[in-house]
Design a protein that fits this description.
Helix content: 25-40%
Protein name: Kinase-like protein
Number of helices: 9
Largest sheet: 6 strands, antiparallel
Oligomer: single chain
Distance between the termini: 41 Å
Structural class: alpha+beta
Length: about 290
């Protein structure tokens, strides 16, 4: 049923009434936060509640982006997990391709760790694993897992975010994304993504999400992105394809990351994607005493 609804919403550019945000929104700033595919506005409603209004960009002739927007809102509106940012609905009165979600006042992963250096890193790791495991259980592939796409609410709960045109895909039949992976974050990308020869073979999978989760663990226990000593301009995908991975963070053991847990992270980085553990297993093992 969901697959049929998603297809219908995408082809007709409509959503069920329950998938729209009900209320008027007002900008609180004159300038949004801009990303690769969207602008995010901090907004309030008539009751002074704060939200995030994410406005996706689509140029003339990019009808596939419009269809994709309606498809993804259909899927994300049905997701419900404490470690996944909820979608409150589309708001066409604010902007044509606008999705509304709760405002996350503590920022993304690295911003949160900078403000809270003594945060429980193990708890954050488990929360992210639980959220990604839930997405995979619903046959949702994220495709761009990284610290910037993990936001924190006022209680310090990590929540996976970003259902943009290049990140969230849905295919209940297979583990593959339903459209080519047009954009990726190179430091978090799995070897099979980096060595793919074309867009058709450069599709994210659950297993490439598992690989990226391992890189997120590095961010959690270092407070920095993977391979921080190499600039984006000088970063060579070849080293990942050939097997280079980050070392265990120096202070990770003091922060609670056991040797067994680190071994599990290393398993997530196996060059052969069919040798990596599934996220359900990863989340389950991280919750077990080591």
């Amino acid at each position: 049923m969901l697959r049929s609804l998603r297809k219908t919403c995408g082809s007709r550019g409509i959503l069920p009434s329950s998938h729209y945000f009900h209320g008027r929104l007002y900008k609180t700033t004159n300038r949004p936060m801009s990303g690769g595919t969207a602008d995010v506005w901090k907004v309030i409603d008539d009751r002074k509640h704060i939200f995030a209004a994410k406005v996706f960009r689509a140029n003339y002739g990019e009808d596939y982006k419009i269809k994709r927007f309606y498809k993804e809102v259909t899927v994300w509106k049905r997701l419900n997990h404490p470690n996944v940012v909820p979608t409150l609905g589309a708001e066409p009165n604010f902007a044509d391709l606008c999705a509304v979600s709760p405002w996350m006042p503590e920022g993304d992963l690295l911003q949160y760790l900078n403000k809270h250096p003594v945060a429980n890193r193990v708890s954050i790791m488990i929360g992210v694993a639980d959220g990604l495991s839930y997405l995979h259980s619903k046959d949702v592939i994220h495709g761009d897992m990284k610290g910037r796409n993990i936001l924190f609410d006022s209680a310090g709960i990590p929540q996976i975010n970003d259902f943009g045109f290049s990140s969230i895909t849905f295919n209940p039949v297979s583990n593959n994304a339903s459209s080519p992976f047009r954009g990726y974050s190179i430091r978090w990308a799995a070897p099979e993504i980096l060595e793919a020869s074309n867009d058709n073979s450069r599709r994210p999978t659950k297993m490439s999400d598992v690989y990226a989760f391992g890189m997120v663990v590095v961010e959690i226990f270092t407070g920095n992105f993977p391979f921080p000593d190499v600039s984006d301009r000088d970063f060579q995908p070849r080293v990942i394809i050939e097997g280079k991975r980050p070392p265990k963070p120096i202070d990770a053991s003091k922060m609670g990351l056991s040797s067994a847990a680190w071994k599990l992270v290393e398993d997530c980085w196996n060059k052969k994607r069919d040798k990596r553990p599934g996220m359900q297993y990863v989340a389950h093992r991280l919750r077990k005493p080591w």
